[in-house]
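cache lookup: miss for this entity combination. No prior model stored, computing from scratch. Input as submitted by user K.M.:
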Amino acid sequence: MTDWENLRFFVTLAREGTLSAAARVLAVDHVTVARRVAALEAETGLKLVDRRARSYRLTDDGKRIADTAMPMEEAAFAVGRAVQAVRPGLRGEVSISSPPSLANALIAPRLIALRRRHPGIHINLIGEKRTASLNRREADVALRLSRPSEPGLIARKIGRFGFSLYGAHAYLKETPPHALAFIAYDSSMDDAPQQKWLRTLVAGRETVLRTNDLENQAAAARTGVGLAVLPHFLGDRDPELRRYNAMSAPPDRDIWLLVHRDLRRTPIMRAVMDFLSDCTTRRRGE
Amino acid sequence: MTDWENLRFFVTLAREGTLSAAARVLAVDHVTVARRVAALEAETGLKLVDRRARSYRLTDDGKRIADTAMPMEEAAFAVGRAVQAVRPGLRGEVSISSPPSLANALIAPRLIALRRRHPGIHINLIGEKRTASLNRREADVALRLSRPSEPGLIARKIGRFGFSLYGAHAYLKETPPHALAFIAYDSSMDDAPQQKWLRTLVAGRETVLRTNDLENQAAAARTGVGLAVLPHFLGDRDPELRRYNAMSAPPDRDIWLLVHRDLRRTPIMRAVMDFLSDCTTRRRGE
DNA sequence: CGCGAATTGTGCGAAATTCCTCAATCATGC
DNA sequence: GCATGATTGAGGAATTTCGCACAATTCGCG
């Protein structure tokens, strides 16, 4: 292979499926992706993609080549991590991936403290449902609510928080228990423990709103349409919301800190990880 | 890592040591190598090389990065093999690495037969002392005289040949045994079994010529300056040379055929390997 | 059925990269 | 001590590569 760039373009095309999507990921024009894939075909003498009108479709050969080229991408990410690990001192950018609710409530408000302490560190806080891949270096560290088992990753438990049902103060006073309505996640979150717990509790009563966004649930609860299961760190600080104590309590959840093995020892990562640990453990007391 | 080409340049610079050597390997101008390495330094924010007057010298960081980037090169070679393996039919170029003597005496004269049988195959026969690396794809198949243990390589024994001492007809008739002189490999071949055997035999008698080239040894023996240890396939077919039977016989040597695991099943490789096998086993009878 | 959104393909101008040539530096051998 | 060979460095021309704008096609949806 005389041109590794062609392989890089081809691999991301293979993963993204479409020319335009690959172009977005690579931050280049879609024409460039098309050209480089064509160049790779010329170089190998193989037909790697079927150019369909609305999508590039890999041929069998293309699939095989893409598979063998994947390890190359892995190695490239390893190089990226090595660069990060070797970089001296406390400067540089660190990407943190976190569930949006944690990011908003616990991390973002305290970022100023980190910046004061380590002015050289630039933080990129990514609040996303989709769990970013540390292996692909979409983020440097991640907060998760369950312990995943990705190879090469180190997981550390750095906190724990509880849930309660919350409703608007007026709503709770006016509504008899059997008439209470509920606000829940949509079905994409059916596996979450607090959601399961809520399902058993609802038991025939009404679910008036489903949304995948926790802030939306809180906002809705505030208007008095029903009760939402919210983390304490979110519900307790809202002046318009009150806890509603049900028969059973929703299960607590642990906060896991994830970092790649190659990076965990670098000064900058240690600083960020300590900071994140502070954010989550201090909160436990409240 | 946003530009894999920079890594490719840097890795070969790290291996070759000098800018110009890397440029030769990469078939580009040395300035290009320098620029790409500089670009990689800018991209990573690390100082990867010390620009000394007469050589680029990797810094510690550079060494580390180069080490982590090596697997990337491995993967790139794997892609190259995959391309070769996927390529349909019996066309394409195959590189054969072989000890020069074998190449000249056994392979080259018969290549015409292979071409007749498979006109689509283009052979690139590399007769080199230095054993080419199949992993680096410097050759597709190799003939060796000992079984190496490189990872990913398949070795098969495809023949065996013996040695004898040879001298010019006249020289053998005129010279009494105690006055015989010898022709040997230079010290770089001290490990070869036939060389060791020769050393025990010489036992104080004269060694008039040392050369690392077997053809040179044969040519010298032909002129009557002494006896050389030659493979039978080389000495027997020379009308001016005769065997000289010493007390003990030199050890036979096996011929090994090496091919990378990823390539061994492709039609084109099977054809070439069958051909090589023919070349070496048929000869055994003679 | 027609509209809109998304994707791929094409032509052209701009920008970046590369190569070539010459000069400078340095180690090595005689 | 000096010539020689090899290497790095710099500037200008040429080639390659890239991005932009627009056309063409397909798919989904009301």
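stored under new cache key. Residues 18-21, 30-31, 34, 51-56 of chain A lie near DNA strand C (CB under 10 Å from a C1').
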